[in-house]
Design goal:
With 234 residues, this protein is of the alpha/beta class. It is built from 5 helices and 16 strands. It has one domain: CNF1/YfiH-like putative cysteine hydrolases (4-Layer Sandwich), CATH 3.60.140.10. The strands form 4 sheets. The chain has a 6-stranded mixed beta sheet. A 5-stranded mixed beta sheet has the order 1-2-16-8-3, with no helix packed on it. Strands 12-14-13 form a 3-stranded antiparallel beta sheet. The two termini are 26 Å apart.
């Protein structure tokens, strides 16, 4: 294992065995400059998003410098690195090993309420023939439920979008504040869409509590974002 001070990103151990797949959830040490300088990324073209807390999904079919507006990317092309930036929101990777298709999604509470992940699964099925029960899912670091207080407006947004309230927990002695479990909200949506629970991986701690990660709730004044990436080698 690499010394802690050298770790710029974290991986899903179960995915290490997959040929040609490269992925990682960035710590505060990983910058775009670092990505361009690391040997493992030298043959990749980086694709970024202008993230807008939506359910807009883009399929990337060629190398492009265009920055799309939206919150999820899908590709089956080699040497394209899909990048999602977070600082408490949930980064999610979706991977179909047999079809060599990968997706990266930015799941804040708005995108989660709008069911961005089930919509991504539908695109994967229609475009690439990816079946939900063949998919492998990785959840990255995000703010945990005990640290994520939201207002009644968030609960009502989930209700209007037809999303479940199961991921919310009441706060005793409060009327209009709740604790939201972003991971559980997205996990339940994936399960309802046909993804197997045993194919969902979630080994990481709360971004608000773990100083390896950047957190908007912990330090609202910070401007940095964690870089989370996935792609296929040639």
């Amino acid at each position: 294992m690499r010394p802690q001070k050298e770790i710029k990103y974290l991986i899903i151990p179960e995915w290490e065995r997959i040929p040609f797949l490269i992925h990682g959830f960035g710590t505060r040490e990983l910058t775009l400059e670092a990505v361009s300088n690391l040997d493992e990324f030298k043959d990749f073209k980086t694709v970024l998003l202008q993230q807008i807390h939506s359910s807009v999904i883009h399929i990337i079919e060629d190398e492009t410098k265009k920055i799309h507006k939206g919150d999820a990317l899908i590709t089956s092309r080699s040497n394209i690195l899909l990048v999602i930036r977070t600082a408490d929101c949930l980064p999610v990777f979706i991977m179909d090993e047999s079809r060599r298709v990968a997706a990266a999604a930015h799941c804040g509470w708005r995108g989660t309420a709008k069911k961005i992940l089930p919509k991504a699964l539908k695109k994967l099925d229609r475009r690439f023939g990816c079946r939900p029960d063949d998919l492998s899912i990785a959840f990255g670091p995000c703010i945990g439920q005990d640290c994520y207080e939201v207002g009644r407006d968030v609960v009502e947004k989930f209700h209007r979008e037809g999303s479940s309230r199961k991921a919310f927990k009441d706060i005793p002695q409060t009327k209009d504040k709740f604790l939201l479990d972003l991971k559980e909200a997205n996990r339940q949506q994936l399960f309802d869409a046909g993804v197997r629970r045993e194919n969902m991986f979630d080994p990481f701690s709360c971004s608000h509590c773990d100083d390896r990660f950047l957190s908007h709730r912990r330090k609202p004044e910070q401007t940095g974002r964690l870089l989370n990436f996935i792609g296929w080698r040639e």
